[in-house]
Amino acid sequence: PQGSEKAKTFVHAFLKRSMPKMKDEAIQDMLTRKAVVLEHYPPKKTKQKRKKTKGFTAKQRRELRLFEIEPEQQRYAIFLPLHELWKQYIRDLCHGLKPDAQPHMIQGKLLKADLHGAIVTVTKSKCPSYVGITGIILQEYKHVFKIITKEDKLKVVPKLNNVFSLELDGFISYIYGSKFLLRASERSAKKFKLKGTIDL
């Protein structure tokens, strides 16, 4: 073991090397307080930026024709199983469409429901040629429905100025397309106000 004088000398020399910018008086002051903080700066960690996976732009999707249905696939019979799945989905969503179910509650859930697979009919329209079109909704966009009819024809029906009806287990619901100008994903998060609407 070293003597007290040697120990003081060693500590003083060690602190002088560790903290060369400090004066002797400051080092002595730190020693009298018995609190020594050595200057040590850990190397800064550089944060690695996460690369966001870029998807296709709308223009690229159109050029690649990702969402277009091939003509040989445009057959009503192919999509009947999709309609059966949709009916089961709505029954589960509404906890069963019972006769004593409150219509406004079912209507509220149908407003937010996914309509891909639903059979709809255009009941009213400002364009008479759209009235009577019936088929399964294959694709829903912000402004249009793509519907496959029983005649295996793919119809693009605008939502604006059209009224659609859908029937399930005896419950008939009407969709006012003018109030439905949203994508399916946006509609599920939207709060609809139950208020009257102007008829066509």
TrEMBL record:
Entry annotated with the keyword Metal-binding: no
Gene Ontology biological-process entries: rRNA processing; tRNA 5'-leader removal
Domain of life the protein comes from: Eukaryota
Broad class of where this protein is predominantly found: nucleus
GO molecular function, one term: ribonuclease P RNA binding
Keywords, sorted A to Z: Nucleus, Phosphoprotein, tRNA processing
GO cellular component: nucleolus; ribonuclease MRP complex; ribonuclease P complex
Localization terms from the record: Nucleus, Nucleolus
Pfam families per UniProt: RNase_P-MRP_p29
Complex formation: Component of nuclear RNase P and RNase MRP ribonucleoproteins. RNase P consists of a catalytic RNA moiety and 10 different protein chains; POP1, POP4, POP5, POP7, RPP14, RPP21, RPP25, RPP30, RPP38 and RPP40. Within the RNase P complex, POP1, POP7 and RPP25 form the 'finger' subcomplex, POP5, RPP14, RPP40 and homodimeric RPP30 form the 'palm' subcomplex, and RPP21, POP4 and RPP38 form the 'wrist' subcomplex. All subunits of the RNase P complex interact with the catalytic RNA. Several subunits of RNase P are also part of the RNase MRP complex.
PANTHER family referenced in this protein's UniProt entry, alphabetically: RIBONUCLEASE P PROTEIN SUBUNIT P29, RIBONUCLEASE P SUBUNIT P29
Role of this protein: Component of ribonuclease P, a ribonucleoprotein complex that generates mature tRNA molecules by cleaving their 5'-ends.
Similarity field: Belongs to the eukaryotic/archaeal RNase P protein component 1 family.
Name by which UniProt lists this protein: Ribonuclease P protein subunit p29
